[in-house]
Amino acid sequence: MKRISLILVAAVLVFATSCKKEKKEVDTKVEEVVETMASKKLKTVLSPKSDSKVSGNVVFTEENGVVKMVAIMEGLTPGEHAIHLHEKADCTSADGKSTGGHWNPTFKNHGKWGDVAGYHAGDIGNFKANENGLATVNFSTSEWCIGCGDETKDITGKAVVVHQGTDDFVSQPSGAAGSRISCAGIIE
């Protein structure tokens, strides 16, 4: 009888241990799938700079390794303007210069996004405001991330800066886009 009891106890322990291992493997796989499917979202508010009236919101969403930026602005002068990511999420100065230069973690020349000659990680480009001073910018890239810790991709701690003029994509280091008329820190 003792022998049968010991065999039963051993069988239960083996079964429980193998189930625990399988459960742990399943839990790990579920966590990986959830992490892959999870999205990150940051919303930041644009504040007027350089005596402008430019305000708005910028929303960053990351899904499946792609960051999408949607900026909705008002108070712009009609026509084209430049928008960039700058080095620091510090929008405290009246002229927006506390944000530093363009975000350029790979030390490339300034240029047009996607140009084979090179471009900064913050070189988003130009957009057009309508006759009422309203504009929307939609931008997506796999070259950014939100809070990933990769210094060459992580946009947290940077700033969105809207410029008075247009980016010529040639002048170094900033594209001669003019004064900084709106700013938003990208903070998690």
How is this structure best described in words?
The protein has one helix and eight strands. The protein is an alpha+beta fold and 188 residues long. The protein has two domains: 1-38; 40-185, Immunoglobulin-like (Sandwich). Strand 2 and strand 3 form a beta hairpin. The longest helix has 36 residues, at 2-37. It is globular. The protein starts with a helix and ends with a strand. Residues 26-36 have low confidence and may be disordered.
How many domains would you count in the coordinates? Answer: 2
Structural shape: globular
- Structural class of the helices, strands and pairings? alpha+beta
Main sheet overview = 8 strands, antiparallel
Determine the mean pLDDT: 86
Percent of residues in helices: 10-25%
Please write the CATH class name of the largest domain: Mainly Beta
How many distinct beta strands? 8
Task: Offer a concise description of the structure.
The protein has 188 residues and is of the alpha+beta class.
Describe the secondary structure blueprint for this structure:
Elements: H1 2-37, E1 40-48, E2 55-63, E3 66-74, E4 79-86, E5 125-129, E6 135-141, E7 159-163, E8 180-185
Antiparallel strand pairs: 1-2, 1-8, 2-3, 3-6, 4-5, 4-7, 7-8
Features:
188 residues; alpha+beta; Immunoglobulin-like; 2 domains; 8-stranded antiparallel sheet; 1 helix; 31% strand; globular
